[in-house]
Amino acid sequence: MPLPPAPAKRAAFLNTEAIQPPAKTKSLRRTEEKSEPTATMVSEQSPKAPLVKPQAPASKVSQVRPENARLAEAPAEKPRNEDRQSAPTRNTSARVKKPKQSGPTKLFVLDTNVLMHDPMCLFNFEEHDVFLPMIVLEELDGHKKGMTEVARNARQTSRTLDALVATHGADITTGIKLDGTGHRQVGGRLFFQTQVLDFTLPSSLPQGKADNQILGVVEALRQRHAPREVVLVSKDINMRVKARALGLAAEDYQNDKTLEDGDLLYSGAIALPQDFWIKHAKSVESWQSGNQTFYSLSGPIVADLHINQFVYYEAPGEPSLYARVTEIRGKNVVLKTLKDFNHLKNSVWGVTTRNREQNFAMNMLTDPEIDFVTLTGTAGTGKTLMALAAGLTQVLDDRRYTEIIMTRATVSVGEDIGFLPGTEEEKMGPWMGALDDNLEVLAKTETTSGEWGRAATNELIRSRIKIKSLNFMRGRTFLNKYLIIDEAQNLTPKQMKTLITRAGPGTKIVCMGNLAQIDTPYLTEGSSGLTYAVDRFKGWPHGGHITLARGERSRLADYASDVL
After folding, report:
1. Angle at the Cα of 323 (from 321 to 324), degrees rounded to 5?
2. CA distance linking residue 301 with residue 303, whole number of Å
3. Which residue, among 361, 112, 135, has the nearest Cα to 234 in the 3D structure?
């Protein structure tokens, strides 16, 4: 049985004079005060005394083009169960204040490569509107087949568009609200090209090419929605150059970039000022715990520190300080001195550190409380050698981990040599030349035993090191493993998340890479997965990062990394 329609007006309150004697004047005054708004509301809702001119919304609608759904839909919203005088006043003031705070909204036209790069890009434009030309949907359909990441992203984008179109009350002609699928932070609308747009492009641009058709759509929208700003968003550099040559606004998709400049990346270490001890001599508290010394201090420098960040103080004629931030509470910070791996007595698998940053890295690699370590630096700074030495010591000597698992992104520098024969480990062999080189260096540190002893040691080391491919990491869980991810700068943020989430209880992950040697297409220093991991894990109590500054491979390699 269908429910009866809701009443159009509220019922008036019952007059209390009918049930109560008129003896108490206070209660009558309160009753009259409560009943007055109701009477005013009923009288204002009657058509005899309209306070708002009925012609105003009609004139607004006639001036608005049908494509601009945000302005066209505004007059259709009428308040229910509220007085007609107060509701439009509140809505109008709210609409006027929002553009003053955030500026006028823009209309972003997305290129196909943006959707295939990030399937969730539709929800990253905040209060602005998004427009998809018909040729973009046609290109998405052409890239949906296959098992590549581009094909997966194309299929995910198609599913997202289908979910938006299927939302309750969605109307393609007036725009679809982007917050209909649960993304409440988005305030814009999604528009599809539902009609033929007239545009003229220079005769030198072929009309049948997809990029030129998108440029024509941007030109038509710019003329139709003037003075509203229409911006083309594309990952294609040539596309953006052609758009600017035609006088169109074009931008790169910036949401995938963690940092605008690689020099702004968190380094993991900070130098204390020269007057540090002079300012903090009276307020510093120190105590001893085992072989380490702890310092507790406060001051303005605390605001610039993060958990597990290294601090150092070096001044001529004064004792040096090398410590790590272990605790931050309000304006107080606790520093813990480091173990000196520069000394031969503290060597790790026969390897001693040669500079300050290497000593910082070795302290993190050998600390069981740190589960995630990221190392960046130029070629020859000792990233792989230190990670392997620390792993072998903790696997074979300390029995902290069961084995070492090493993997890397199989991205070649030049032309691909084709398919490789053999098992998974044999196929990964040519990519693991760095592993063989560093194991050869570590094997030479064993000088006490003879030739047979070194051969037995090499066999033992090889049995505890497993080489795995990134292609088969989905769904795995590593328990008590020492996982080394080499050349991590070639990984995307999505691949980096897939690898890090494989860690089970007792597993340590070491990510290494040189951000100046990115071989993956469409990846930059700002959008690399290694940069993404360094920035997201900054300040986590069980994660650490250090940027290795000086090369120690050879004087030739060190000089070449600087001048070439």
Report:
1. 160
2. 5
3. 112
pLDDT tens figures, 331-349: 899 999 999 999 989 999 8
Q: Residue for token digits 């105003």?
A: 56
- pLDDT tens-place string over residues 466-477: 888 877 788 889
Q: 23 or 550: which carries more pLDDT confidence?
A: 550
Annotate 172-188 with DSSP letters as a single string.
Answer: TTTBEEGGGGS-TT---
Say what the pTM is: 0.69
Record the tokens describing residue 324, joined without a space: 């790590």
Residues 254, 257, 259, CA angle at the centre, nearest 5°? 115
Q: Give me the pLDDT at residue 283, please.
A: 79
Mean pLDDT confidence for 111-135 = 91
214, 115 in Cβ contact below 8 A?
A: no
Angle (CA) 221-136-115 rounded to 5° is 105
Q: How far apart, in whole angstroms, are the C-alpha atoms of residue 497 and residue 506?
A: 18
pLDDT of residue 110: 94
Tokens found for residue 503: 């860690």
Sign of the Cα pseudo-torsion (150, 156, 162, 163, in order): negative
Give 245 or 146, the one with higher predicted confidence.
245
The 3-state secondary structure of 245-262, one letter per residue: HCCCEEECCCCCCCCCCH
Mean model confidence pLDDT for the chain: 78
CA 439 to chain CA centroid, nearest Å: 36
Q: Which residues contact 111 (CB under 8 A, 6 or more apart)?
A: 136, 211, 214, 232, 233, 234, 235, 236, 239
Left (φ > 0), alpha (ψ -120 to 50) or beta: where does 522 sit?
left
The side-by-side arrangement of strands in the sheet containing 129-132 is 176-177, 189-192, 129-132, 107-110, 230-233, 249-251
